């Protein structure tokens, strides 16, 4: 292989080798990641390498090397010795109505864990945890590392954005993946997710890998392959890592849209809220408590999570987190009061429109992807990084799967600003609801499978 500038490899040779199905050594991958970080490689060469990886894949040792080099491209967080075994987090591959992180982080903190949850923003039809929290007046997602550690010391959890010093290579590669249509490459997904989580200095990580029409992977087999890749590499870099496979056809809970989802997360923290949201929070949290040694079994962990959701301990942690991250004491206390009037604390959309059921029968399906895409077109999401969003745009689902409905019953309430819903949007939303015969209904739990640590 040709070498340029001393020990620096020829990137065209590396691209050619991967394009033709060859393997890259750890040294090759290190050189590539360092060049991405330093800007010493051309954008066209980065794109070509990403496409070669997308087309030919990577062997497990290549994926591990890519993850480790990306993780080492910036700072790696370290924590006090007395926190050993307690620092945990979760990652979701994205879905519609996925507000699980909001109740999960404080619930884990109430169980004695430290949760430095570094989250992202929404892109395309999936919502972002940071966007949801920023609908709360005063909440600040950008926190220096020193402040992050203080919040963990005082509260036990925080939900923040990625700092400039953590995994800089991933930011560059992710932007290029989006531009080159290589976002769905399994080794690149694995490297992106786990390099960030590894840089958090975690003891344990649970991954919520979603499948279905509103997920990145449409079928359970491909989601399972990704989960196995993530679990294998996560454990190899020193994090006890497990995963669940969860269905993502219908929205999680009854609300979609940033501020509406915060309200629903608060209801969950008050021991109320939709059963499928509670199921995911208890399952993922219980898994983490078991992996981190805070519970003797998955079932015991789920019981502990359920207890702190019911007795108010998780809600108290959420209130403390709000105040620690910039929300006024009065607002935090009001939001977390048992009978809070949420409308006092969130900007309300200019208009609300209810859609009606068009025929008698049982609710068989609610297409989460269609619902999210319409809301996205109305301002609830963004198509490229940095775009502003409208936190008040969203939808309340007024029916549940398996419910008997009649023609004229309201099934969806849309919150929006001007302009009004157009004919195409109304048609698409109505088509998202399927009503039919009882015999056609099959109830499925959210969680389909567990992938255990290796």
UniProtKB/TrEMBL annotation:
EC numbers listed for it are: 2.4.2.4
Instruction: Supply one GO CC term from the record.
Output: cytosol
Q: Name one Pfam family in it.
A: Glycos_trans_3N
Q: Per UniProt, which keywords does this protein have?
A: Glycosyltransferase, Transferase
Q: Which residues form the Pyrimidine nucleoside phosphorylase C-terminal domain?
A: 362-436
Its UniProt pathway annotation is: Pyrimidine metabolism; dTMP biosynthesis via salvage pathway; dTMP from thymine: step 1/2
Q: Give a GO biological-process term.
A: pyrimidine nucleoside metabolic process
Q: Which GO terms describe its molecular function?
A: 1,4-alpha-oligoglucan phosphorylase activity; thymidine phosphorylase activity
The protein's matches in SUPFAM superfamilies, at most eight in alphabetical order, are given as:
Nucleoside phosphorylase/phosphoribosyltransferase catalytic domain (SSF52418), Nucleoside phosphorylase/phosphoribosyltransferase N-terminal domain (SSF47648), Pyrimidine nucleoside phosphorylase C-terminal domain (SSF54680)
**Domain of life (superkingdom):** Eukaryota
Q: Which reaction does it catalyse?
A: thymidine + phosphate = 2-deoxy-alpha-D-ribose 1-phosphate + thymine
Assembly mode: Homodimer.
Q: Which family does it belong to?
A: Belongs to the thymidine/pyrimidine-nucleoside phosphorylase family.
Its annotated function is as follows: Catalyzes the reversible phosphorolysis of thymidine. The produced molecules are then utilized as carbon and energy sources or in the rescue of pyrimidine bases for nucleotide synthesis.
Could you identify this protein by its name? Answer: Thymidine phosphorylase
The organism named in the record is Denticeps clupeoides (denticle herring)
Gene for this chain? TYMP
């Amino acid at each position: 292989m040709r070498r340029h500038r001393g020990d620096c490899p020829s990137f065209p040779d590396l691209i050619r080798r991967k394009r033709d199905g060859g393997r890259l050594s750890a040294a090759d991958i290190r050189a590539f990641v360092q060049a991405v970080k330093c800007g010493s490689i051309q954008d066209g060469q980065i794109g070509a390498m990403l496409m070669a990886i997308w087309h030919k894949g990577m062997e497990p040792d290549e994926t591990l090397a890519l993850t480790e080099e990306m993780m080492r491209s910036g700072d790696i967080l370290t924590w006090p010795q007395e926190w050993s075994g307690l620092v945990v987090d979760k990652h979701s591959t994205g879905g519609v109505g996925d507000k699980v992180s909001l109740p999960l982080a404080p619930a884990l903190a109430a169980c004695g864990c430290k949760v430095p949850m570094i989250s992202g923003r929404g892109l395309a039809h999936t919502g972002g945890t940071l966007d949801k929290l920023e609908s709360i007046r005063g909440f600040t997602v950008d926190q220096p590392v020193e402040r992050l550690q203080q919040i963990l010391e005082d509260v036990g959890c925080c939900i923040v954005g990625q700092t400039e010093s953590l995994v800089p290579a991933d930011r560059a590669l992710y932007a290029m993946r989006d531009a080159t249509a290589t976002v769905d490459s399994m080794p690149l997904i694995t490297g992106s997710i786990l390099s960030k989580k590894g840089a958090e200095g975690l003891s344990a990580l649970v991954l919520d890998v979603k499948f279905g029409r509103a997920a990145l992977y449409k079928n359970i087999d491909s989601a399972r392959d990704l989960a196995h890749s993530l679990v294998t590499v996560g454990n190899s870099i020193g994090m006890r890592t497990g995963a669940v496979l969860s269905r993502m056809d219908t929205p999680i809970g009854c609300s979609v849209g940033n501020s509406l989802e915060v309200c629903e997360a608060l209801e969950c923290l008050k021991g109320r809220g939709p059963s499928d949201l509670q199921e995911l929070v208890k399952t993922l949290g219980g898994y983490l408590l078991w992996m981190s040694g805070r519970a003797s079994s998955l079932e015991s962990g789920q019981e502990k999570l359920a207890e702190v959701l019911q007795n108010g301990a998780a809600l108290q942690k959420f209130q403390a987190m709000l105040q620690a991250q910039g929300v006024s004491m009065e607002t935090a206390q009001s939001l977390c009061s048992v009978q809070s009037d949420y409308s006092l604390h969130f900007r309300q959309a200019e208009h609300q429109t209810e859609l009606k059921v068009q025929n008698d029968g049982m609710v068989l399906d609610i297409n989460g992807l269609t619902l999210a895409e319409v809301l996205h077109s109305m301002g609830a999401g963004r198509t490229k990084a940095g775009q502003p969003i409208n936190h008040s745009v969203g939808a309340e689902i007024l029916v549940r799967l398996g419910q008997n409905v009649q023609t004229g019953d309201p099934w969806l309430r849309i919150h929006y600003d001007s302009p009004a819903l157009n004919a195409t949007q109304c048609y698409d939303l109505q088509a998202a609801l399927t009503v039919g015969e009882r015999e056609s209904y099959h109830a499925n739990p959210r969680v389909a499978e567990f992938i255990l640590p290796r």
